[in-house]
């Protein structure tokens, strides 16, 4: 720990209220730990004779409402002796099979049910997967928010959009501060991540201390702020930690995540190579440190900076306003002005690094951007790694840009991106200094949680002291056990499609999938209300099934078939509409499958006159 | 080259017919090249005084029908002095936006148009992206096939399925052989790839020699057969090569692709770790060498081998039958028998390494496999890398397997896979020994072709001597120029959906996409043929739009709106059906967008009585 002392972040100045207020029994400094206690602690606590275990210590409950077995939607409810608080309230992006869905929220049922016992929401940082579901929750349950200045700055913009701005109480807290929720104290601990002002937390409760890293990496030379407060994590480890919950995003990746600062060198050499071309950099809108480095490089090479993409403009204006992004006077220009400057005097920073179809970069690639036209005079840098599932769309955007003659830098040729999450060596280091009794990997798909658990085993943890949980699980932790409580709380995906929240579910999605794969046949027919015989029709309308012109015979045969089915039913005195519709569906789907090997959705519509 | 002499493959034994038959002018051995000629050539050709350039040399034309700016669908037409032949005839897998499509074929229009001038189809190896479109082409144009034994063995199975087996002439050729198509000689050259019996070709024509690598890698210790015949490529380089066309699949990856043999060590250590568990390995069905190594390992550790997945069973039975896969008597057992053996005596080799939803491994993961149930007693190895676009579905399969308690090895933890394609150092090596005048990167998306071109520039090629072409382009090559001919030939995607070939196009796909994203509203109404007033209805049926139960008001409002629109039209004497339908669509889509921010497809159906 000593080599970090000079880097001790500002956070350390704040009083360790929580620790001080803890019941003494929660701190259990073992004799051998005390011997290695950090030297900056001038007065060692006097050794107390070991007490017998106090049997009455209450347990703490952790209900996972999101973020396990999935990426995104991070939301966890903690409860001890009836006091509750939420950690984060994130959204997720829809999977490929969630056709037409805009975003995914956690299920708020359990939160609504316990609304009167929940004292607040603590936010670890300002990424969508940690704050994105807030407006939707706050419309149902009004709870006070606690977060660092930038995090709340970003939340503010979000609440404004949803007309919630002055209805929610927002409390700015800083690393080192402790928030009190009844018997629970939540201490904020500075960490490094791909957005400034990120924190982990130490949850001090009568049951013991739980450390949650939030999203983190170890960056000894961060672009913004101090190095992660490893000192505090280690100190907590010395004092005794009941459980560690840690970010599993990069648990599959060996090694150590590189420092954000390394990007500067790559950018410098690319800026030199770009020479007389316009430079366009695509990056995550929230990565203020990345943008800072691009701005610094632009200043050095005498280029103006313009921003493209709504979220990029939003976040950067918040960043500048709040002092997280430093741009010298006159460097930032409006995108409308870029044509007034020579190409080699411009850097354009844009969204779209994930190949999102409607993003600024995609629109440039497909010549659909109102203000920017790209070509051989453009040097484009994709400063991000494709999130799993986006590889293909990112590849398509790169292909299109290259077809227009742009030079494109991406992937491994230059170091155009570093991750914001800890890799295996950092994860082990965190476990090693926090020394928790129990380990719960969080934030990640099953395979990431598994690899993270493997790291714990490799450091000597016993399988029974590691818990791979699922959303909906409630874990009970106390000094002598960690167990999953029977019965799960409601947790799952609430889908947002346009203005609808939760009105699209599995049946609607199943229909969309069916329509997507084989299209639709609507059969309309009017029958007589007297004898059931066909009065007019049947008519067949198809969409997404087949070119009608090439399949006139098939459509005619379908009409003939439906006609004969209906007439036969009429002859046999069958008038029940359910039976009629089923007969049409069955016979028609046979015909179509036989002739095309496809199974379009069949919608029989019968009218009676 | 000398260090490779011991490894000179069997191919070298065959007479170099093509070279011998070449007009002397095509060989132009420059004085400085002759000085470095390989020593195994005992009698140097006597130096001839340099001749003046013969101006009458005819050009050769290359028409790209597939495989450029895309992965898959490899198919190229060569023509010199009216003689034509096709190289490969592959299919591609559909992109995500090709909803419901099974596979993608090249456009055969240009081939059909020139059917009488095309002398045959040369196949480089038996992968789907090189032979998969054959049955569809051969149904239209009957052409003789030329390929190595395994390649034709795999084609045979394909033709049988399509009822074409005895209708097509198949000619077995081996490395070293030269096929004559009029003035063109096509020489087969042994290469390494992820399937045995792969070849590159040297196309000897009056215009000069063109070398096409096919899919290749350099494997100095291949599991099957000899090392790639670098000696022959180098010899061609010495003799003078007009153009090199080379595989760009891995052009973005630095370094050298590892030898297939390396896999054996990884498998050994995993087999040891698996101990008393059943081992399940997912791999590409066509990778016979991979399966050979798994079988060898199974034999060593006393396990029986069973196969799962139709293509795995098919390819391996061809492999065994033709002598490409060696399995000791009694090792291979039927999948129905695996339950008769203890788990630690079984290795199951299965398809599904790409997470394909209907594959054997996916079905195991989602507990939907009729014969195999997986759980904590299974040790599963995913011996493949996800093809771009498949990362997410592969991840899902791994997650599900882990949730069932399986141990899963994948990705970088062990070396579970090596590529079958050359990386940057190999690609440069190939360029360095073939020393072509012109360079044409093939097989890959734009970004891969670009990176491959960059490698050529880094080796000193001038941009004007490198051609990044597109499908549909026809390139003319001769000793003094390489140019794109004006006008493109038909080339694109012909979509196969069920039995339909080409009957699903952009309109149908656009409809499917629309239906997939927002679903469908069908409005049915019967109006009077006399005055146009509503007789019955309107009725509204929705699919994939919204839960009807939650939106009864919306549906009722929609009905009311359509009713009033129709009545208004009737009052105003508007009877034109086009106008009626447009009015319904417009007013309804406004209502729905206003209330839901969604735009479902609206199908108004009006009946008249």
From TrEMBL, chains A, B:
SUPFAM superfamilies: Metallo-hydrolase/oxidoreductase. It comes from Caproicibacterium amylolyticum. GO terms for molecular function: 5'-3' RNA exonuclease activity; RNA binding; RNA endonuclease activity; zinc ion binding. Residues 1-40 have a biased composition (Low complexity). This is Ribonuclease J. The gene is rnj. Its cofactor is Ca(2+); Zn(2+). It is found in: Cytoplasm. The active site is at 247 (proton donor), 421 (proton acceptor).
